[in-house]
Amino acid sequence: MTDILELAARIDRARLDRVPIPQLAEAESVDLDASYDVQSAGIELRRGRGESVVGVKLGFTSKAKAEQMGVSDVILGVITDEMQVGDGDAVDRSRFIHPRIEPEVAFLLGADLDPDAPADDQLAAVAQVAPALEIIDSRYRDFRFALEDVVADNTSAAGFVIGPWRELAAVRAELDLADLAVELAVDGEPAATGSTGDILGDPLHAVAAVVRMATRYGVRVPAGSIILAGAATAAVPLPDRPGAEVVASVAGLGRVSVTIGGTDG
Ligand code: 0L1
Ligand code: MG
Fold first, then answer.
1. pLDDT at 71
2. Phi first, then psi: what are they for 57, rounded to 5°?
3. 59 CB near ligand 1 (under 6 Å)
4. What is the per-residue pLDDT across 88-126, written as a single tens digit (0 to 9) for each?
5. Which of 169, 210, 215, 245 has the most crowded Cβ, counting Cβ within 10 A?
6. Which residue's alpha carbon is nearest to atom 2 within ligand 1?
7. If 0-12 CB within 10 Å is exposed, 13-18 middle and 19+ buried, where does residue 264 land?
8. Average pLDDT over every residue of 45-65
9. Is residue 12 within 6 Å of ligand 1 at its C-beta?
10. Full-model pTM
């Protein structure tokens, strides 16, 4: 039988010690439901140390990434206050093992997500939208994992940065959220480019996906939650030079940045 708590503790220890572990699937039989139980147990460990859940994130939201992993559905992870870095602030890279960074779109809920409501009403729960950065960091060796591994590892969630929030209704009156150019730049040089359309065809589709996944796996997404909708480009390695700056720009929506902290940063 799968020992959920032992697996959660193993991944938690890898994260805290910054020592990557072999994939769980190499030694255990863990199905997808059990993987979400491991994820949830890992979040309970973090809550027990004083962290607060502030929202959720989706992974595998681009067709390219899903095909690469051979999966047909998104994955859901949980984000906590300890993962958040202020816009423009320095992040301590030594917190991570082999971090990568990706540009995203974030939503802020003004009301609880109601699984029984029609899709339009679920969208009405979203109050604000912002450009965002997500730092992902696999707790597995060589950043290699099977689907069950990465779900158990809270979908590689490690850090996030939220840019300026804007009212969603005002943005939608002005812009097509499904077709905004996205650029990820490191020290002013483009490192990756894409479109918000690369996020599930339209980042707003993330809301229904979150409702579906959160209902299936018993995750609460109350008013005030942040939703990281998914990446608009492939992730790039988080630079390791103190003072290096990573900026995500989403046309019409704004920019968000983080710098690498350290003795020179
Ligand atoms: O946020 C993401 O899209 C990452 C999902 C997990 C897969 C990965 O670590 O690349
Ligand atoms: Mg992501």
1. 85
2. -140, 155
3. yes
4. 999 999 999 999 999 999 999 999 998 888 877 889 999
5. 210
6. 59
7. exposed
8. 95
9. no
10. 0.96
